[in-house]
């Protein structure tokens, strides 16, 4: 018995893969569509949202166009709707047999990555003519703009030497702040910041972490270097009112943060409790040193939703203390006075770069390790825009997309610290501060912080500050791990310290070379 071949079935009319879910009710400004299976969000205009909503209700192209047209008081061309559905299909939001969640997620990742690449390319095209209006770039940029990678790298010394040439003839409207970066006298750099620019990039960076974004606008405490940044000076003895600005209370830390007198320790703990912060934004060394002393004195501390660390490299030891004392997650962020927060750690621990406001490139400096120097181009800064700015900061690129909803962004597996905060192994290899931390932190039991000082080609001294739960017997293993990482010939001395002091910039360093003093 033979069977007739089946006639090809007409293709199924398009339908949505799942019910529409909106982050907030669609408004005049548009709506954020959430894909429940991948957790991603897609920004739609109001018209797109109404079209899609109507399509979800009626499932028929012609009826959708007619009904949505009435709702929007517009003549809706069916081709618009088909275009929208094609875009929605490209994002994997239409039902398709045989497509699993992983494939959908990857498709969305690539579609969004293309979207951001196009957006950045467009912003960069608009940026170059504006740059040429500034004397410095007029001098250094020729007219042939053939791709970012061919444009000159901007180093910090050039900005210091030619600061005035980066300024426009007239300042843009809105609040302007004059600041300077931290660093030793030779490193300090003037910075001018437009708060309009700041507001254009900063919220986007923080939004890359949902937990942080959810606390936006809430009360928080800040603990950072006692350094005066030109806009605010945390002078010892400033009153609490003077240190409070909007929802933020700046705690009165000092260079002696590792050994605070009891009265100041108690005052800081009391201020932290009384301000009732949702979170603390802190330099990790400062907060870890404070937290360890508060723990020793059994001072009650507030319950926080999370801690954000920034300003300097966060050691795994700092993180361990903060998680233990505050019983909450710790998210690290990366930024600089020159351009603000650029990347933030997501819940999965990766650093995600703000995809709207920055282009980042990694420069190989052939130092024999896997750390790369970060070059930053700012896209949303109208005042003092930076093109391929050599930050002096090292990062390690991530080798696979993150598992979180922001996997289309550029990501770093880790921050590696400032290039100057590195030591060299006797064979010449560089160990960046984070590489040193990956050796010290797993072996140590109960350290608050430390600094590995290279004193000669093969001689190193680990200065360490014991924590409340210090286990002295773990220290020989720390020395052995360092010797193994540094390689043949390395000698490692251990020095227990009652206090660690920051550099004159106010920042602590986990590693440094000091080859002059023997
Ligand atoms: Zn992530």
TrEMBL record:
SUPFAM superfamilies cross-referenced by the UniProt entry? Acetyl-CoA synthetase-like
Region ranges (Disordered): 1-30
Species source reads: Nannocystis punicea
Q: Which domain of life is it from?
A: Bacteria
Q: Which Gene3D superfamilies match?
A: N-terminal domain of ligase-like
Quote the biased-composition stretches of kind Basic and acidic residues, using this chain's numbering.
1-26
What is the protein named? Phenylacetate-CoA ligase
């Amino acid at each position: 018995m033979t069977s007739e071949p089946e006639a090809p079935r007409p293709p199924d009319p398009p339908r949505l893969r799942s019910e529409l879910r909106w982050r907030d009710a669609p408004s005049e400004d548009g709506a954020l569509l959430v894909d429940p299976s991948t957790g991603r969000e897609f920004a739609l205009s109001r018209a797109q949202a109404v079209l899609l909503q109507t399509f979800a209700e009626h499932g028929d192209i012609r009826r959708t166009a007619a009904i949505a047209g009435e709702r929007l008081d517009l003549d809706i061309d069916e081709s618009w709707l088909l275009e929208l559905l094609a875009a929605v299909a490209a994002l994997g939001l239409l039902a398709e047999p045989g497509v699993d969640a992983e494939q959908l997620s990857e498709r969305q990742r690539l579609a969004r990555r293309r979207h951001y690449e196009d957006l950045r390319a467009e912003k960069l095209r608009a940026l170059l003519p504006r740059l040429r209006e500034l004397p410095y770039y007029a001098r250094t940029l020729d007219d042939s703009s053939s791709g970012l990678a061919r444009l000159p790298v901007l180093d910090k010394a050039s900005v210091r030497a030619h600061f005035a040439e980066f300024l426009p003839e007239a300042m843009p409207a809105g609040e302007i702040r004059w600041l300077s970066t931290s660093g030793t006298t030779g490193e300090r750099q003037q910075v001018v910041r437009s708060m309009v620019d700041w507001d254009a990039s900063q919220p986007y960076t923080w939004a890359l972490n949902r937990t942080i974004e959810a606390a936006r606008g809430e009360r928080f405490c800040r603990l950072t270097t006692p350094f005066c940044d030109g806009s605010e000076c945390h002078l010892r003895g400033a009153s609490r009112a003077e240190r409070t600005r909007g929802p933020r209370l700046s705690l009165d830390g000092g260079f002696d943060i590792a050994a605070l007198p009891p009265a100041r320790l108690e005052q800081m703990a009391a201020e932290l409790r009384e301000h009732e912060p949702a979170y603390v934004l802190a330099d990790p060394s400062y907060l870890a040193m404070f937290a360890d002393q508060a723990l020793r004195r059994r001072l009650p501390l507030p319950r926080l939703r999370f801690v954000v660390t920034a300003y300097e490299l966060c050691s795994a030891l700092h993180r361990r203390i903060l998680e233990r004392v505050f019983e909450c997650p710790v998210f690290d962020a990366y930024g600089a006075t020159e351009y603000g927060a650029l990347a933030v750690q997501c819940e999965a621990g990766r650093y995600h770069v703000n995809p709207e406001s920055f282009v980042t490139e990694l420069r190989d400096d052939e130092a024999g390790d896997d750390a790369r120097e970060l070059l930053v181009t700012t896209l949303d800064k109208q005042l003092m825009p930076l093109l391929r700015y050599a930050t002096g900061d090292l990062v390690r690129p991530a080798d696979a997309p993150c598992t979180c909803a922001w996997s289309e962004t550029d990501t770093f597996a880790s921050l590696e610290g400032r290039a100057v905060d590195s030591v060299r192994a006797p064979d010449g290899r560089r160990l960046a501060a984070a590489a040193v931390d990956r050796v010290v932190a797993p072996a140590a039991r109960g350290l608050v912080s430390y600094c590995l000082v290279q004193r000669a080609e093969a001689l190193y001294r680990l200065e360490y500050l014991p924590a409340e739960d210090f286990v002295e017997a773990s220290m020989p293993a720390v020395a052995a791990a360092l010797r193994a990482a540094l390689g043949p010939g390395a000698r490692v001395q251990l020095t227990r310290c009652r206090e660690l002091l920051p550099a004159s910039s106010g920042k602590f360093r986990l590693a440094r070379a000091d080859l002059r003093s023997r």
